[in-house]
Amino acid sequence: MTLRTYDRYRMSDVPWVNRIPAAWGTVPFFTVMRECKRSNAGMVEANLLSLSFGRIVRKDIDSLGGLLPESFGTYQIVEPGDLVFRFTDLQNDQRSLRTAISNERGIITSAYGVATPTGIEPRYANYLMRAYDASKVFYAFGGGVRQSIKLSDVARMPVLLPSEDEQRSISAYLDRETSKIDALIAEQEGLLTVSRERRRALISHAVVSGLDRAAPVKKVAVGETAWEVPSHWPVLPLRYTLRYQEGPGILAADFRDAGVPLLRISGVRTAVATLEGCNHLDPDMVAQKWSHFRVDRGDLLISASASMGTVSKVDSDDVVGAVPYTGIIKFTPGAMSEDFIRWFVVSSEFLEQVEALKTGSTIQHFGPSHLSQMRVALPPRDEQVGIASYLDEQTAKIDGLISEAEGMVAVAKERRSALIAAAVTGQIDVSGEVA
């Protein structure tokens, strides 16, 4: 459906909007939005709220454990219709949604700005600020260098102001249309959740229980869990089945403009290792101190944070001979084949052992000391090859579904953002689209 436009436009005096309907005005932010700082001293209110993914959501004040502040008396009170702004970490985080409207009374951290719409319809103001946020308008008020700003910094920011009736029409239209888009997004995200869980379960079953469902099995305790493995598979310490080594800690002072590549985490995010983001080391120093860390063709590399779910193979001439930086684990196949390693180290059985061994530690990555305590169910070599081939084929199908759903979510979010921007800046006239 093609929406109509307004009959007359004029050039806008707002830098990020080319034109606006001729009858619309622009006013400074402070004339229609009043900054509020309502103290929660004495814990007048205990309904804890948070800004998350562009929404104000409830948090359980009793479940924060060690994160619980000494007192929520330092928080501020928000009322229904208030707009919340998160203007912190502007330079490091340019993806998060920074504005939302509160639909209930509660308390929120004083690090956020809170404003009450006074001369503007709250829902319209919320959609307008969301459009400004998507266009990265707020970052300009930090001069491009400041990490945070305050509401006072945007006090004179121009705000587009249609008539009150138009504001209500735009809000009603966007409420209706975005709810349809949100339902589509929720449906696809539900499919993503199911597909990812199916993928996880498929890998987990194959690397521990194999492909022959009729094979006799035995139960083997591994940590606090019991694996059900084929009777003819031994469950062995991981260190008996492959070699592993973490890259060395190297100081920035040792970096050079050219020389032997030093692999970084950004180079092990795909199936084949690359030199993306790499530094370089002096060849003579590598020969003296780090030559035994250099990678060979066929080595497998994984981030020691175990959070990416990707194993990268050394399979190109420019990467062979590079040194992996600390935080990258190099696996060299032994009794466990290259292809089986690739699936085992992304399985739940591997990751759960990592998490169990990290419990109580302040270090959030694993290393050789953890790997030396881990175990693996080791199939005969022919079964390893068959399992890897099966998982390659089956996960490719699931990955196709995941990619399709992710694409639909991305398109829906882009349409949502574009629709909001078009409506609140007057590029479309929706006044006749709502009852």
UniProtKB/TrEMBL annotation:
Type I restriction modification DNA specificity domain sequence ranges: 292-397
Keyword field contains DNA-binding: yes
Segments crossing the lipid bilayer: none
GO biological process, one term: DNA restriction-modification system
Entry keywords, A to Z: DNA-binding, Restriction system
Keyword DNA-binding: yes
Any one GO MF annotation of this record: DNA binding
PANTHER family named among the record's database cross-references: TYPE I RESTRICTION ENZYME ECOKI SPECIFICITY SUBUNIT, TYPE-1 RESTRICTION ENZYME ECOKI SPECIFICITY PROTEIN
Entry similarity comment: Belongs to the type-I restriction system S methylase family.
Record note on quaternary structure: The methyltransferase is composed of M and S polypeptides.
Name used for this protein in its record: Type I restriction enzyme S subunit
Classification of source organism: Bacteria, Bacillati, Actinomycetota, Actinomycetes, Propionibacteriales
